[in-house]
Design goal:
heterotrimer; A mainly alpha (about 280); B alpha/beta (about 425); C mainly alpha (about 300); A: about 280 residues; mainly alpha; globular; C: about 300 residues; two-stranded antiparallel sheet
């Protein structure tokens, strides 16, 4: 905050204590998840509360990798990347629109976008199912991509609007004065500057699509197009839950999502900062 | 050149790939586990080998969400040909006229006459006509942990309800251990029904005039038995919310000593507990000297929207033939459907003894839940669940919940009767 | 494309060139795809969904439907479970929100300072948001189970519990399990957005305040908070709405039990729709939730207007 006074020793200790706390708080459950994945079946219950299991094993991971899991993983990748790309593109347009234009109906549209967040998506599952079924798109990854894109547009638009707010309008206007259409100006001048923002939105939507369960469960019944959240549920059988394997699958599933998010979180903060002033 | 080459190449590719089958059947399994899917696939492969031109696609639904998933599929028009049908759902789908009547098919089937009597009774359970071909039975028996009983000083496994209560109390006195793996959460209705029936001396759900018997004094005593079991500390404190996985895990982790379950739990338990540590006995008897273990069944049904009814039945028949059924039932842990199948050495082990004694002796009367009532599933999964938890937690009394159940069931029975 | 005006305004010729185009049509070109997608995938089905609430629908008997007017709503009004679900939703939402927000704000304040290893710390501490929520729920359910998790033992050691047991089975405490999982999940959201807002506050303001002898608290209250206010309003509103609708964790950790003590409105919608197979009633509950959230949003926006004026 200020650079004029030196912080007291108490404050520094306090700050580092807080840092330690947050780190522990954030990482402990993830550690536990990985720990279970690495614990041999026989020890999962008997050594349940130990911090570090007495024996480690990779057999859970091996079992998961040999099952259909890789195909579920691949399907999830396709769907999440597709949804992320689609949403970012559409939301960029929408966000730009909100940032630059004032027009009749703007408030109504914003209200509508907000309303889409206000009810449990469960409520529209039956109508969506019927529509998708009648289009013959059941069991297709495309249907999931379209549905996820639509769900994420409102928040992604909010993000993109913030990012665009941080880029001064003069740039496009200068370009337009030189004879470009607005769209050309957008492409040539503004676009390069919004790359962080685009990256951030991509990451955010990817994370959201990656873990979506309900619609994946309902719209897809064929094994070869299942996404991994549904695949994880197959470890919960009527007989027992294969905890070790389930958590191993979960750990593997964490990787893309966490990596992606680690990569883009800086851009999220950066992008939102410039737009945050306008609120 | 191009326009001709392309379609030709395409056709050649299609024929070469062999993926083009004349008939495609969709088989949905709902009680899914990796092992079951594997066995099922093996049986289906045999079928496909014997039937050129028929291809079967297996769709595996995760059990926890299978009910809603299947319901959504059916309501949305994505209807399979053959489905694994638990008895609980049978009346729902049969009642909605979605299933093929299999009577004629079974009559014309070569293995139809080796089916045990019970099997055909089960098949006709909803609506009096066979809308499914059962592949096996579940029957309740009591698992118990030999080691814990020894530690607690209990000499012999309990035969009566009172002995059971005492044994559970003795084990609960041990540090960190509990007597009974109570299923207070989803799916626990069976225990309540069994205890009520045992104390009431009868497994009839309704009197002749259609009145539910669940709130008769004897039945209420049975409900109270379980409530006391929990409130006296003879079941683990969080068992009020325990579902199937938790009770089985509680048993094989040695947390609680008694578990009432079906043969399929044996698979999970046997994998994780050495055989000398546990055994299975019939359910404890009530004051009348009888016990009423619940019996369930699962089988194969054919949806009447299928375009290949004969092939679908052939598939079902193949899966239900004596050899296939023997393989299947051993691997999934149910009691087989053909007469004499229980002579198989697999079923003669000590672990299976509990179930076979149950079936042989007249003291144990298998009881089927009234799943022919349309809203029975909702009763079991929602009404009974919430109210029984409230009773366990002391928020309501046994008589109160019994009266609520009686009211609902009597109503349902009247509706059902009027549709007969 | 005719231009309505041809006047040349110095400095912004293009912007005025075609008033019609830029005011009426051009925006819709940009927002068109979004509108089409949302309309087709969400709003259109939503209308159907709302219409179900006025019908009686049994999932497996699609021909058994009939318009019943407000009957579902009347049943709702007298349904004790509904009111309890509203109460639980309030606990769930505000319990989660209060802690997420404060912890998130604290984290943002820390990240706004400098310290060694900050970049790594920042990346790690935002991870919870990237974990799929049902995995989070499963892990926390695991953590709360005394046989296999440490939490009950820690709680007992701290004296909060008299003995280690699973709070998820205790109707008076069960809700805190999913709430804790939700807090863990939601802190990064607030941390990111509030950090962004914090970073946009000009540093000179703090320096000037310090020179005038302002205390930490005064800096925070008079400079930080007002600058954060717009971002706070939006994120709190959005997050509240999301949390109220978010039943995954409750469903996985407690299933709405025991005895309905953790059943919130959106999980009640699920049980009604998929266990009782009564889509009409389920839709009525969902509409009630939508209505409640609409009112909440409106109140928040009005409050914000008032604050901005001040």
């Amino acid at each position: 905050m200020s650079t004029l006074t030196q912080p007291s020793a108490l404050r520094t200790t306090g700050k580092y204590a807080a840092i330690g706390f947050y780190l522990l708080f954030a990482l402990f459950p993830i550690y536990w998840l990985v720990k279970i994945a690495l614990t041999p079946d026989a020890l999962i219950y008997s050594e349940g509360t130990r911090m570090i299991p007495s024996a480690l094993t990779l057999e859970n991971f091996a079992a998961v990798l040999q099952s259909d899991f890789l195909s579920y993983f691949a399907n999830s990748l396709v769907v999440s990347l597709g949804a992320a790309a689609g949403t970012t593109l559409v939301a960029a347009g929408a966000g730009y629109c909100f940032s630059r234009f004032r027009f009749a109906g703007k408030k109504v549209i914003i209200a509508l976008l907000l309303i889409t967040q206000m009810f449990p998506l469960l409520m529209i599952i039956a109508p969506i199912y019927k529509i998708v079924a009648s289009l013959g798109l059941l069991n297709s990854l495309v249907s999931l991509i379209v549905v996820y894109t639509a769900f994420n547009i409102p928040f992604a638009t909010f993000l993109m609007q913030s990012f665009f707010d941080g880029i001064p309008e003069d740039l496009e206007e200068a370009a337009m004065m030189d004879g470009c259409t607005r769209f050309q100006a957008l492409r040539k001048v503004v676009f390069p500057l919004t790359l962080p923002g685009l990256g951030a939105t991509l990451g955010f939507v990817f994370t959201a699509a990656w873990s979506e369960l309900l619609f994946a469960l309902m719209l897809i019944s064929k094994n070869d197009t299942m996404t991994f959240p549904v695949g994880l549920l197959t470890f919960v059988s009527k007989f027992s839950v294969d905890w070790g394997q389930m958590m191993a699958a979960g750990t593997l599933a964490l990787i893309p999502s966490c990596l992606f998010f680690i990569f883009i979180q800086r851009y999220l903060v950066q992008g939102l900062t410039s737009g945050a002033v306008k609120g | 050149m191009k326009p001709i080459a392309l379609p030709t190449a395409l056709t050649a590719a299609l024929m070469a790939s062999g993926a083009y089958a004349e008939t495609r059947l969709k088989l949905v399994e709902v009680i899914t586990s990796p092992e079951r899917t594997q066995v099922l696939q093996e049986l289906v492969d045999e079928y496909e080998a014997a039937n050129e031109g028929v291809e079967v696609e297996i769709v595996s639904l995760p059990w926890g969400q299978a009910f809603e998933k299947l319901a959504t599929m059916v309501a949305g028009g994505d209807i399979p040909d053959v489905v694994e049908m638990p008895e609980r759902w049978l009346s729902l789908y049969a009642g909605a006229d979605k299933l093929v009547n299999l009577e004629e098919h079974i009559a014309g089937w070569e293995h139809g006459d080796t089916l045990s009597d019970k099997t055909m009774d089960m098949a006709r359970y909803a609506g009096g006509e066979a809308h499914m071909l059962p592949y096996g039975f579940y029957l309740r028996a009591m698992f118990y942990n030999k080691k814990l009983l020894d530690e607690a000083g209990v000499d012999a496994p309990p035969k009566t309800m009172e002995e059971f209560r005492q044994a559970a109390a003795a084990v609960s006195a041990l540090d960190g251990k509990s007597g009974y793996c109570l299923r207070g959460g989803p799916g626990g209705l069976n225990a309540w029904v069994m205890m009520a029936a045992a104390m009431n001396g009868t497994n009839e759900f309704f009197t002749e005039d259609g009145q539910s018997r669940i709130n008769e004094p004897g039945s209420v005593e049975g409900l109270q038995f379980l409530i006391d079991m929990y409130q006296d500390g003879n079941a683990p404190r969080d068992s009020v919310n325990w579902g199937f996985n938790e009770i089985v895990a509680g048993f094989y982790s040695g947390t609680c000593a008694f578990l009432d379950q079906d043969p399929d739990a044996l698979i999970a338990v046997a994998e994780r507990m050495p055989a000398e540590d546990f055994a299975v006995i019939p359910m404890p008897v009530g004051p009348s000297g009888k016990a009423f273990p619940t019996m369930g069944f699962v089988g194969w049904s054919i949806f009447n929207s299928t375009e290949h009814e004969d092939e679908a039945f052939d598939l079902v028949a193949h899966l239900s033939s004596p050899e296939a059924n023997a393989t299947w039932t051993k691997r999934v842990g149910v009691i087989p459907i053909h007469e004499g199948a229980d002579e198989d050495p697999h079923f003669k082990t000590e672990q299976f003894a509990g179930w076979f004694e149950t079936m042989e002796s007249a003291d144990y009367v298998p009881t089927i839940m009234p799943s022919y009532l349309e809203q029975f599933g909702y009763f079991a999964d929602s009404i009974a669940l919430d109210s029984s938890q409230e009773a366990l937690l002391g928020q309501r009394s046994a008589q109160e919940i019994a009266d609520e159940w009686a009211g609902f069931l009597t109503e349902q029975y009247a509706e059902w009767k009027s549709e007969q | 494309m005719t231009s309505l005006t041809d006047t040349v305004v110095p400095g912004k010729p293009w912007a005025r060139r075609s008033f019609y185009l830029s005011y009426m049509v051009e925006p819709y070109l940009y927002i068109g795809p979004a509108l089409v997608l949302i309309g087709a995938v969400i709003l259109f089905p939503l209308i159907f969904g709302i219409s179900y609430s006025f019908q009686s629908i049994a999932l497996l008997k699609p021909f058994d439907t009939g318009w019943v007017g407000f009957e579902n709503y009347i049943d709702l009004w007298t349904d004790a479970k509904f009111w309890r679900a509203i109460e639980n939703t309030a606990w769930w939402t505000f319990g989660s929100l209060a802690f997420q927000f404060s912890l998130g704000l604290g984290l943002a304040l820390i990240l706004n300072t400098a310290f060694p290893g900050k970049r790594l710390f920042q990346a790690l501490v935002f991870l919870p948001w990237a974990v799929p929520t049902f995995l989070t729920a499963l892990t926390f359910a695991w953590l709360f189970n005394p046989v296999i998790g440490p939490f009950p033992h820690w709680l007992a050691a701290l004296g909060i519990l008299d003995e280690p047991y699973n709070i998820l089975g205790d109707p008076s405490l069960a809700m805190w399990g999913p709430i804790l999982a939700n807090i863990w999940f939601g802190v990064p959201f607030f941390a990111i957005t509030l950090l962004a807002a914090l970073q946009s506050i000009p540093g000179e303001l703090y320096e000037a305040a310090e020179m005038d002898g302002a205390s930490d608290w005064q800096c925070f209250a008079k400079i930080t908070l007002p600058y954060l206010a717009p971002m706070i309003t939006i994120t709190v509103m959005l997050r509240t709405i999301w949390i109220a609708n978010f039943a995954d964790m409750i469903y996985v950790m407690t299933g709405g039990g025991p005895a309905g003590s953790t059943e919130i409105l959106s999980s009640y919608v699920f049980t009604t729709a998929f266990r009782k197979l009564d889509f009409g009633y389920a839709s009525a509950i969902a509409v009630a939730l939508l209505f409640i959230l609409l009112i909440y949003a409106l109140i928040l926006l009005v409050v914000r207007q008032k604050l901005v004026k001040v």
